[in-house]
Structures are given as C-alpha cells and as structure tokens.
C-alpha cells in the first residue's frame, strides 16, 4: 500500500492512504456544502475556476492506469482515469460505498458471483472526443497483464479465468477470453471462483479505458488518454511535476462523483515534508490554494497547530483502514507455544506504544486486527485484556504456565526507518513493557529493505517482529484473506501470512464469505472471523494510525471519506 492516494496490498506493508474511523466525519477548514449536492452558487460556497496546487514528498512515478495500485481510483489519478465503479465521494461512512462510474450500476452478478456484467453509460468520451467503448475497457485491463507494465493490483490475475497465464496484448493478440464484450456498451467478466467484492476491484485503475490506437506502451504514462474531468498537459521528471487541465469532452452529466472545481491542478513533488507543512501553514501566494496528498503533521507540528486557532481550523483528520501489530511466527520457538504468545499479549503497554507512535492525536490503541469501521465488519474483542498500561502480573502467570517461570529472552525485528510504526521508538516501548513481565527483548533493527525482506520471507522470517497492514478497499476480504488464508502463503516471494496459518476451517469460511454479494452481511461474517482467529494469539494488535493533514487558507469544500481518509481532490475548490 502506498501513500494516501494509492492504496495497495503491497504498500500495506509500507505507508498508506488514510480513511476516517467509525463513521466519524472529519473535515478541514471551511467546509461549506460537503461533497455531492454542493451547488457552488450560494454565498461562500465552492466555485469553479482557479488553480489547485498539490505539494507532495513522493513523485507520482507511475501514471499509467495499468501500473497504478489504487483503491477507489486513487486521488490525483482519479481526476484523469474513470473506472467501471468508484468510491462514493461523500464524507464519513457513506464514503465507503461503491458507486457506478463509467457503468450504469455496480455490476450484475450471476447466481454464484462467478460472472459479473456491466453496461456503460451513454455519452462517454475520451479527451479527443471519441466514444468510450467496452472494448477500450477490455484492452485497458488486458495491458495491465503485460510484464512491461507491472505494478498494478494482482486480483484480476488471480480471479479471471486464464488470468494466471495471460501475458498481455503485446504478446497475446487474441486477448483474454474471460473478458467478453458482446457489444460496445456491455462487458462481462468470468471468474475462477465466487467473488462478492468484485465491485470494489472494479474501482481500480486497471479498469480505466485505454484506446488501443493511442497505446504507446511504457511511454503511455507521459500522456495517457483521459476519460475523466482533467487531462495531462505536463509530466516532468517521472511524475515529479504533473499539470492537469480541463478535459473539454468530460460530461458532468455522466459523472455524479467528481466536482472538478479548479481549472488547473498543479502537482509538485520531491519536497521535504517539513517544507510542505511550512508552506501550507504560511499559505503565501499560490500556496494559499494548496493541499498535500502524502504528508502528515508530526507531533511537534501538531503542538504548534494546537496553539493557533486559524491553523487548527485547517487541519483534516482521517483514519485509514490500517492496523499496526506485533507478528508471531509460530514456526519459530518459543512462539510455537500459544501461552508464550498470550503472555506477550497481556504484557503490552498500549499507552506507551501509542506515545511512541506520536501520541493519542496520531494513534489509537487497538485490540482487534480489523480496523474500527463498520464497513470492515469491526467486532469489538479483547481476548487478552491488558488494560491501558499492560498487565505484567497476568503475563508472568501465563508465562509460568508456558514453562518459563524464570522468564525468557526473545528477539524483536523492527525497521530503522523513523516512521513511528515499525520503528525503534515503537520497538523500545514493546521492549520496556515486556521487561516488566520477565521477558527480555533484544532489538534487531534493520534498514527498511532488509526488514521487509525478512518479515515477508517464509524461509527467513523471524519469530517476532513489528508489522502493519492496510486495506485495498474498505471491507474485510483484503484485510483478513492475505494474512490468514493458508492458500495465500507464498514460499518464493513476499508472504504476508506471517503466522503461516493454514486452517481448513478459516479457509472455508473465507470462501463462503466471498460468495456473498450482500456486503453488509459479508462484513458481519468478516468481523466474526476476525474475533475467532484472534483467540489463537497469532498477533498483538497495537494501534490504528490517525492522520492529520493541513490545507492552504483558500481551500474550500474539503471532503474526507472513510475510504481514503484524506481530502478528495475531486471535491476541492479554491477561493
């Protein structure tokens, strides 16, 4: 999972996009009329025109829809690439819903959810005025299978019939037979197994239409053909500078989600995070109409904001569906002993961990693996209650039952990156808490690449390490399946099932939930499964991150949903 505008499974292992917690509506600055329904005509309301500046630390290196790993269409990419479905551009819990985008609905499944059919809306056009057809969407998906355009989400490779062996249209001119286009407005997907959450996958940019005649392969990202409200007019230094201007052939009558208030979007990247926050704070010149999609406020900056009412009014708060946790590998002693894992669970001082993560303004204590949002199926549980500061006496008792009356010594792998998540500060907080329970923790700090290689390796994974996971979309499937489905254990690549759990009952329940197209019913089942797996103490949930973003003083109509957790650029207006 990457930074806020790019939600991904692999970046779940890195840092990610944000989402609002528990349906709370977070907003920043002078939010006027909210998301959809904002007319922009009332006094002080959002108006069309002007230039929105985006100040980012990370460059948008990939701007090819095949190579982007996004959920809901992403943030900046969503301005250029429309998809079959997209996220609902509303604040709060309403923003976790999938809604139609290019399609007339969110998809029509057959009886067992192994086939999904979509019909395109009337009047859809590319930036050059040519009609968008189902063949363009089929081709856009097929090119995402090409080795030259790797990097996108892996789901279609796993889900589509024949997807595991298809190599893309450059090598296989016949195309992928499991994507059928009986006419210019209809597209049908044939899956290897039931997938009730397919409408969520259809929000990813691989579903953006690409006209075959305009495909330039690896160079396509320099000027992708727009299907959204803006087109790319400048892409410099591999995405370090992106300039978007209005697409004259985008018809708002076909797009209920994107407001597209500014005339121009100017994305400037490669900036120091402290500089970004300072520029947003000062809001001088063009920075008054600026936002960031990847830079948070830190503890010191929040202290400054807290003493300035004007700045505080310009801070948006969001929670991404994300959990930071202690991971156990039961294949390594002494973590094969459930009592040892339970003892560590009882010993954890979540208050000290939260403080190490930046304090309660930037982290919330967690006792469940699923984030605290209804869309995920959040079901409260605390199988090994340690209170706010840990229960070392209970931990010592359980450790004695495990056969270690005199305590034990373990090694904890962590990253040396100063990310306040898998970093030395959090590792030290864990070390200090466990010491009170008679558990000596030796810290093994590794630079980020080495850290990730070790924790994702079946062969070399340690028994005890810091980890984190974020959702590809706001539902339980992409949160629990990669971590606990035994059939997703990867022996020759990145393995996210840290416990190497391969429980037939868990695997079966995952399959049964995947058959459900009623997402609310599915959420209840995901929550129950999370609670059941939690009994095995295969991990210790530590905290859910909280994100604080500053916006320029002339930014209006800030909408933060429970899907992305950051302001939605498609809704933003400038004074």
Automatic annotation (TrEMBL):
State the Gene Ontology terms under molecular function. Answer: peptide transmembrane transporter activity
Q: Which UniProt keywords apply?
A: Signal
What's a GO biological-process term for it?
peptide transport
Report domain Solute-binding protein family positions.
97-487
| Record's signal peptide | 1-28
For this protein, the record's Gene3D superfamilies field holds:
Dipeptide-binding Protein, Domain 3, Periplasmic binding protein-like II
Annotated Gene Ontology cellular components are:
ATP-binding cassette (ABC) transporter complex; periplasmic space
Pfam families, A to Z: SBP_bac_5 (PF00496)
Q: Where is this region: Disordered?
A: 30-49
Q: Which PANTHER family match?
A: ABC TRANSPORTER SUBSTRATE-BINDING PROTEIN (PTHR30290:SF83), PERIPLASMIC BINDING COMPONENT OF ABC TRANSPORTER (PTHR30290)
Q: What is this protein called?
A: ABC transporter substrate-binding protein
User: What organism is recorded for this protein?
Assistant: Streptomyces showdoensis
């Amino acid at each position: 999972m990457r930074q806020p505008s790019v939600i991904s499974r692999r970046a779940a292992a890195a840092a990610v996009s944000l989402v609002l917690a528990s349906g709370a509506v977070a907003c920043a600055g002078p939010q006027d009329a909210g998301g959809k329904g904002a007319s922009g005509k009332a006094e002080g309301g959002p108006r069309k025109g002007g230039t929105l500046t985006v100040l980012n630390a990370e460059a948008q290196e990939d701007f090819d829809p095949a190579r982007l790993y996004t959920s809901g269409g992403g943030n900046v990419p969503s301005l250029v690439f429309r998809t079959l479905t997209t996220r609902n551009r509303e604040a709060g819990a309403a923003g976790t819903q999938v809604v139609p985008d290019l399609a007339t609905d969110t998809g029509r499944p057959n009886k067992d959810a192994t086939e999904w059919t979509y019909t395109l809306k009337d009047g859809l056009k590319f930036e050059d005025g040519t009609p968008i057809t189902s063949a363009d969407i089929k081709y856009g998906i097929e090119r995402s299978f090409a080795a030259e355009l790797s990097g996108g989400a892996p789901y279609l490779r796993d889900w589509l019939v024949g997807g595991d062996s298809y190599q893309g249209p450059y090598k296989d001119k016949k195309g992928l037979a499991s994507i059928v286009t009986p006419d210019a407005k209809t597209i049908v997907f044939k899956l290897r197994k039931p997938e009730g959450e397919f409408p969520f996958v259809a929000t990813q940019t691989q579903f953006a239409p690409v006209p075959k005649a305009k495909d330039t392969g690896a160079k396509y990202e320099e000027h992708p053909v727009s299907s959204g409200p803006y087109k790319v007019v400048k892409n410099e230094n591999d995405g370090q500078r992106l300039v978007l201007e209005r697409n004259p052939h985008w018809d708002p009558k076909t797009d209920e989600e994107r407001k597209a208030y500014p005339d121009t979007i100017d994305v400037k990247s490669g900036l120091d995070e402290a500089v970004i926050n300072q520029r947003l704070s000062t809001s001088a010149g063009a920075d008054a109409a600026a936002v960031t999609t990847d830079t948070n406020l830190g503890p010191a900056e929040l202290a400054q904001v807290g003493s300035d009412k004007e700045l505080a009014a310009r801070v948006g708060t969001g929670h991404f569906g994300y959990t930071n946790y202690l991971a156990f590998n039961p294949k390594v002693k002494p973590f094969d002993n459930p009592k040892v894992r339970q003892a560590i669970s009882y010993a954890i001082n979540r208050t000290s961990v939260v403080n190490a993560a930046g304090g309660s303004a930037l982290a919330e204590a967690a006792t469940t693996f699923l984030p605290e949002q209804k869309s995920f199926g959040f079901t409260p549980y605390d199988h090994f209650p340690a209170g706010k500061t840990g229960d070392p006496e209970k931990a010592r008792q359980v450790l004695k039952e495990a056969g270690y009356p005199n305590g034990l010594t373990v090694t904890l792998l962590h990253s040396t990156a100063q990310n306040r998540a898998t970093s030395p500060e959090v590792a030290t907080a864990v070390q200090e808490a466990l010491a009170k329970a008679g558990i000596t923790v030796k810290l093994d700090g590794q630079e980020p690449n080495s850290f990730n290689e070790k924790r994702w390796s079946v062969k070399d994974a340690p028994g005890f390490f810091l980890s984190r996971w974020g959702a590809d979309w706001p539902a339980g499937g992409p949160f629990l399946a990669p971590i606990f489905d035994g059939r997703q254990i990867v022996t020759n690549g990145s393995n996210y099932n840290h416990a190497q759990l391969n429980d037939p009952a868990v695997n079966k329940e995952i399959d049964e939930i995947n058959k459900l197209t009623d997402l609310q019913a599915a959420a209840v089942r995901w929550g129950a499964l999370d609670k059941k797996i939690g009994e095995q103490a295969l991990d210790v949930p530590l905290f859910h991150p909280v994100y604080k973003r500053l916006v320029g003083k002339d930014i209006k109509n800030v909408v933060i949903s429970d899907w992305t957790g950051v302001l939605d650029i498609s809704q933003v207006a400038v004074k």
